[in-house]
Amino acid sequence: EIVLTQSPDTLSLSPGERATLPCWASQSVSSNYLAWYQQKPGQAPRLLIYGASSRATGIPDRFSGSGSGTDFTLTISRLEPEDFAVYFCQQYGSPPFAFGPGTKVDIK
Amino acid sequence: EVNLVESGGGLVQPGGSLRLSCAASGFNFSIDTMYWVRQAPGKGLELVSGMTGDARSTFYANSVKGRFTISRDNSKNTLYLQMGSLRGEDMAVYYCARRPHGFDLWGQGTMVTVSS
Question: Is residue B72 a contact partner of residue B49, using CB atoms and an 8 Å limit?
């Protein structure tokens, strides 16, 4: 069973800054089936990135994903006010399709 | 419009049962693998159960195996989760989600509260 780790729990940044969110897997993620989600309070998660680096429909290009194997990163090039939220990674290559614990990006 | 709408949540006593429904619209429901994902208050996301489009293959998290049953009615474009022997730790918002590439479509969620 693959376990995902995200750190830090909270990242405090200012609008306009670059956010780099890592996600580590305990084993190699099959076919780079790694996704990133954004969740705001009271809302369902929203898919941002799938296949480690492909942006989902309608996702702004300031969001990008990279990595392979066991090390993955979500980058937000310049934080907009609406980007302050919680971000989860998920591997969907090998059941059970675990989620990481999440990183909260809040306003500094 | 492509949409998922959950229903059936509510207050249930420990040991009780509840059936959740997820109504799909705007896409070819019968070909997509569908999942239930839950989120306890203030916590992260947990994949609970999943079922392929043809209903031949299912998945259950260890935490619900033997207590929850997933099913679907492709003629009604609806996914179900029958939950039994409910415990306090099952209290959460339950989302249904679709997977082709990642989980690209989520419902708004339905809250299940387990309390006496």
Answer: no
